[in-house]
Each structure stands twice: as C-alpha cells, then as structure tokens.
Fold this sequence. Notes:
Layout: H1 2-14, E1 37-39, E2 46-48, E3 56-62, H2 71-82, E4 87-93, H3 105-116, H4 135-144, E5 156-159, E6 165-169, H5 178-188
Parallel strand pairs: 3-4
Antiparallel strand pairs: 1-2, 3-5, 5-6
Amino acid sequence: MIKFIKFIFGLMISGVIVMLPSKSTSAEQVGSAYDYSFTTLQGEEPLPLSKFKGKVLLVVNTASKCGFTKQYEGLESLYKKYKDQGLVILGVPSNDFGKQEPGTSEEIASFCKINYGVTFPMASKQVVSGDDAHPFYKWAATTLGFGTAPKWNFHKYLVDKNGHLVDYFNSNTAPDEENLVSAIEALLK
C-alpha cells in the first residue's frame, strides 16, 4: 500500500495526474442548459429551459419529506425578491435520496402550494443521480466535474443568462446564504 501511495504521489508531483476541475465554468463548456427540457409538474406541457433565455436560472432538486424541505420557504422568498430582476427558480422533485418524494405530481403540487406558497415553476418528478439521471443532471455533473452531482435533496445548480452552468451549491446551502445570494446578484447585473 505504501508503494502505491508513493507511486500516486510521484505522478502528482510530475504533473501526470491532472487536478480535477474547480466549481467555475470554462469557456469551453459544451452545450448549454437551453439544450434540455423538462415537463411541468402537472405533466401538461413541455418545459424547455430555453424558455428562460436571458434569465438567471437556479435548478433545485426537491423533496417533500426531507430535513431540507423547509428550504422551499427560502426558495420562494428568493424567487419573489429577484424574479422581477430576472431570476427563475425551477424545482425538480426527486425521489432519489431516502425515498423522500414518494408523492404523485398532484400531491407534490398541493404540498408545495399549501405549505410553502410556492409560485416558482416546478418540473415533473425526475431521477437526478446515477446512470438514469435526467439528461440535464448528467450534463451539469459532467460540465462542472467530479463531485458536483447531487448527493442529496435541495442540491442547486446556477445557470447564467446565456444558459451556461456557472456553479453548484450543496444541499446544506440555504437559499438566503450570502455565497448563493451574491452569486445570483452578480449574474443579474
């Protein structure tokens, strides 16, 4: 084992092992968020992300029975505060983590409206992790690099006005945290 560690360390020093990408996006980003589409939570119509061209987009995988579910309140506040300046929040319900979104589309919509007054757009329930993840989530994880895929509910991806993926925020980043708010405000300018 010690020989293996020395071998890896030697490769790192010699520059053979390339460092993993940082959270920032590169000019060589392949495609854009506008290449992807969801379906509305009610399943009535397509929801292409190109509909949000010229807006800042925060895509959040959500769940109704999670310790982070109270973030719906903060997301709604954030949406109300910045929507007139061009912020769109897209909630994407997912049952991937802890089976914490077992409801039907109707149950999810009702829960969000009654408990948190959610008015921002919501997509239909999706797989957001692993081999069966929705294509947007596969693209986002590939674009930002290793370790940037959702690991739990309320993972957030930030997309600029041109559809470029800019950053991600882990589940424990509350919607009112300074690092998230300042990143949104910078993109809204």
